[in-house]
Design brief:
The chain is built from 10 helices and 14 strands. The protein folds into 2 domains: about 200 residues, Rossmann fold; about 110 residues, UDP-galactose 4-epimerase, domain 1.
Amino acid sequence: MTEILVVGGAGYIGSTMCKHLKKNGYQPIVLDNLITGHRQSVKWGPFFEGSIEDTALLNHIFTKHRPKAVMHFAAFCYVNESIKEPGKYYRNNVGATINLLQTMVEHNILNFIFSSSCATYGEPVEIPITENHPQHPINPYGKTKLMVEQIIADYNVAHDLQFVSLRYFNAGGADPDGELGEDHKPEPHLIPLVLRTAMGLRDKIYIFGDDYPTKDGTCIRDYIHINDIAQAHLLALERLLNRKPGGVYNLGNGGGYSVKEVIEVAQIVTGKQIQTEVVKRREGDPGILISTSDKAHKELGWEPKFTDLNYIIETAWHWCQRNPNGYES
């Protein structure tokens, strides 16, 4: 069975990826330091607790398992935190990734799939956003993702590292089987916060600004189900293993929903009234982020299956009800 190293494989998207790999005949090997991941979500292969900063551990894993590729989900990903603690983000997201890449090259493991982000684009100058859109990130999180994309390109030139970078927009939803879901502490993302409010675990949901140039004044985002994200990564993996050229791809549904629309749909799905309070804007939040994923459709053969916001929220709600305290439940 072809082995794939999944760094950050105990996290929200990484664990979903591991399930998809196993279902499709691959053997995931998980490396995660469990700072934001959960040991309970590692179910489909060997697990190593540790960091990609640990060269000795990487050497051990690469020698023992000889993975055919590495998938990287091990970045810190909170925009607001990155503004307050930029050093934390540059050390982990950039410095540790360089260590991972260098160790891969030394072991002649030259297939790399990077979990990138639409945050590399910054404030959009045109909608929808294509892969050729200017990249001017407006927060340290986005800057670290862009830096890693540039570093990967340099490793491609210098060491023939083959790569796919997937710039996805707003991940949402949960495993339709109810096995895996979103559990961050603290939780920064809108959909789980809204659902926790519906469950009575929060008093209200804060809307950060209602004066954006959008239809209802609140931010608009392009939501994509985590299963669709995992499927795109699987297609990217197979592209590299089949020795086809890599590249950079947007992952989104090509449409957007405002904060208020997400709350309205959540009220319908849950049957609960959700209290809100408008507060000032957060630093580093663009008003509108909507993608076009035509390149991924054409070159990867990727077709998202779970595009309906109702379904995305329904799967997340199912997870929340089964796991009111997250994986600790």
